[in-house]
Design goal:
By secondary structure, this protein is α+β, with helices and mostly antiparallel strands. Helix content is 41%, strand content 16%. Among the domains are: 91 residues, GIY-YIG endonuclease (3-Layer(aba) Sandwich); 120 residues, Nucleotidyltransferase, domain 5 (2-Layer Sandwich); 191 residues, Nucleotidyltransferase, domain 5; 71 residues, DNA polymerase, domain 1 (Orthogonal Bundle). A hairpin with a 2-residue loop joins strand 9 and strand 10. It comes from Streptomyces brasiliensis.
Length: 679
């Protein structure tokens, strides 16, 4: 690993102008390409104290052995040169969108004497009309098969066409009416070209006029009692409408636009693009990338625009490009797109209406693509095995940690403090063994004390279960099961405990295990900000490679623990806000509680009512009224608390009835994100 100061340019050498720079390693290979409005300011950021750099940036500058730059006149030129160099050198530290295929287009070769409809991939050719791209070639063939009965354009290759012309016999499509057979001169070149033009017009969205013409012809044929011709036209109309259904209208104003959405986490990002032409979604494509560098959403959007339009012809750039975040600065990118198209391009974030709604659909597709990618990655046995081995090597464990437990603390400004425990076995979730805890030992916010309490309670239960069963278990693990065959709660120890946090949380977890006399369970922490792995008694963290499957597994475990903790915390908070002192009145059901609130308007007014007034509520007798009055008097708060969610005065707070570490298994809910100061 190189010392960046050994190749740092001297002060004043770097120009304060736009340009593109390259970092090279000791073998002169380009490992990173970047652009800058000011080369001097940008490159200075790479030569700070290594401790202040992002881990991925730190790895890049210590891998590099030299840096060089090229000055350009404008930011647009810098953007173009950056893209060219990324394509040429394929630097390992740049964002790379993994697209395992070239997306197919429906192409009509209008540059030939007899235009041909076909599937095309790769670079676009001059004189060819393109529609798409499509996600799969079969989607194109399905559409073409429906349209050929109405627009029987040639689809055969040059070899088949010449052979049919030589023999005087058309191919099968010519016999069944799905080709006008220009090869045997059933149709002239001019008429066949006109047929191809109509096909292109229909694909471009100009469908209404043509359908109305066919419907009129069908009606005229029926009126003239040409029923076979009318039936054929009816079937043609049905085929066209079915083809149109495959490209449903999503924007009413016949918009030509590309919509780009990004879903990301700390390691990877998924990009989805919807191509809308003539108000219809004509194609969809997507990429997944490793976030090799520390990159923001707007930078991911910029890279996606380069990937999408860098090698396309100008007509592939639509009038409007809708994105979730604008590149910074946006002017050079917009100017570059305008140059590519040859006319003005609107690059913006949709704010309202149909376009914003469609962008939300694209965003959901991106999130689903990222989740599917992670699911495929996590379900691979070889990948999971490699991840566990990497964790064992990094943490210096005797064997791979087949059972991992992760703990996270969640609260909102110190209120409703709870904790979660999630379990992964052999790299996969064991949701039936998830547990959740209420923090009972103290009030307020203290993540370190909370972690100590949770670890203590969990492993105290483990020691109790171990004492019940003894050291002996049979080969099926029956010693760890109840008499009815169910696994005992907390009976299985993990090989590795992961805590969400850094050195203080790790020290608290280790101290709890030491106090219980447990010395055969490894402990580590995963810090959120820099994704560093902390070990007890180590002053420096373990930094796993960002492409490491071991780091990916630890992140999945940590994120699942956070999701589970914050879901429980929000559930408790919502339940507390909905609680009422009437909940503690024995024998008072939901119907009569609602009747009381409806009659008096609020708990406060009910508290000030007399027993006789309470008896006026249907279904409330004197004994019940006395019980209600006594319960409300006992629950009267000294200082009224205000429900911050609704603004209403809260007369009481829900008692602690969940049992803390009772160990009841719970199902995983919908993933949540952190909001405000909630964690």
């Amino acid at each position: 690993m190189a010392d960046p100061s050994s190749y740092r340019p001297k002060p004043g050498e770097i120009p304060d102008t736009p340009g593109v720079y390259k970092f090279r390693d000791e073998h002169r290979r380009v490992i990173y390409v970047g652009k800058a409005k000011s080369l001097r300011q940008r490159l200075a950021n790479y030569f700070q104290d290594l401790a202040s750099l992002h881990p991925r940036t730190r790895t890049m500058v210590t891998t590099a052995a030299s840096v060089e730059w090229t000055v350009v006149s404008t930011e647009v030129e810098a953007l173009q040169l950056e893209y060219s160099w990324i394509k040429e050198f394929d630097p390992r530290f740049n964002v790379k969108y993994r697209d395992d295929k070239s997306y197919p287009y429906l192409a009509v070769t209008m540059n030939e004497e007899f235009p041909r409809v076909q599937v095309m991939r790769g670079h676009k050719k001059k004189g060819v009309r393109y529609f798409g791209p499509y996600g799969h070639a079969w989607a194109i063939r399905d559409t073409v098969d429906l349209l050929l009965r109405v627009f029987p354009v040639r689809t055969c290759s040059a070899g088949v066409f010449k052979n049919a012309a030589r023999t005087g016999r058309p191919c099968l499509l010519g016999y069944i009416g799905k080709c006008s057979a220009p090869c045997v001169e059933r149709i002239s070149a001019e008429d066949h070209r006109e047929l191809a033009e109509e096909f292109c017009d229909f694909m471009a969205g100009r469908t209404g006029t043509y359908l109305r013409r066919l419907e009129k012809q069908m009606a005229d044929a029926a009126e003239e009692m040409e029923y076979e011709r009318a039936a054929r036209l009816r079937d043609d109309i049905g085929a066209l409408k079915k083809a149109m259904e495959k490209n449903a209208v999503v924007l009413a104003d016949a918009t030509d636009a590309d919509l780009i959405a990004v879903a990301e986490d700390e390691l990877e990002a998924a990009v989805q693009i919807f191509h809308v032409r003539g108000g219809r979604v004509r194609g969809q494509r997507g990429w997944v990338t490793d976030k090799v560098e520390d990159v923001t959403t707007d930078a991911l959007v910029e890279h996606a625009l380069q990937q999408l339009y860098g090698e396309e012809s100008g007509d592939a750039v639509p009038k409007e490009v809708l994105v979730p975040a604008l590149p910074d600065p946006v002017a050079p990118v917009q100017e570059w797109l305008t140059d590519r198209r040859g006319s003005n391009v609107s690059l913006r974030i949709p704010q309202r209406g149909d376009k914003k709604a469609l962008m939300e659909t694209v965003q959901r597709n991106a999130q689903q693509a990222l989740a599917l990618h992670k699911t495929k990655r996590a379900s691979d046995l070889t990948t999971r095995s490699r991840a566990l081995e990497e964790i064992a090597d990094a943490l210096d464990l005797d064997s791979a940690p087949l059972r991992i437990e992760c703990y996270d603390i969640s609260h909102l400004q110190g209120d409703d403090v709870v904790a979660s425990m999630v379990v992964f076995e052999d790299g996969l979730q064991r949701k039936g063994e998830y547990r959740r805890f209420q923090i009972k030992g103290f009030e307020g916010q203290d993540d370190v004390r909370s972690m100590h309490e949770v670890i203590t309670r969990r492993f105290r239960r483990y020691l109790a279960e171990k004492e019940k069963t003894g050291e002996w278990v049979d080969e099926d693990g029956n010693g760890l099961k109840d008499e009815d065959g169910r696994p005992r709660k907390f009976a299985y120890p993990p090989q590795l405990v992961v805590v969400d946090g850094g050195k203080p949380q790790v020290a608290a977890a280790k101290r709890a295990l030491d106090e219980l006399g447990i010395d055969d369970i490894a402990v580590c922490g995963l810090a959120k900000r820099l994704e560093e792995v902390w070990l007890p008694d180590d002053d420096d963290p373990v930094v796993l490679p960002r492409s490491s499957e071991g780091l990916y597994l630890l992140q999945r475990v940590r994120d699942e623990a956070h999701r589970f903790a914050i879901t429980y915390q929000r559930t408790r908070r919502a339940k507390r806000f909905r609680s009422s002192p009437l909940d503690d009145v024995p024998g008072l059901g939901e119907t009569r509680k609602q009747a009381l609130i409806k009659h008096f308007g609020s708990v406060k007014k009910l508290r000030s009512a007399t027993i006789e007034q309470i008896q006026e509520v249907p279904g409330i007798g004197r004994k019940t009224a006395e019980t209600i009055a006594a319960a409300l008097a006992a629950a009267a708060p000294a200082v009224p608390a205000v429900n911050t969610a609704t603004g209403e005065i809260m007369d009481d707070e829900e008692p602690d009835t969940t049992g803390g570490s009772s160990g009841e298994p719970v199902s995983a809910g919908v993933p949540d994100e952190r909001r405000g100061q909630e964690r």
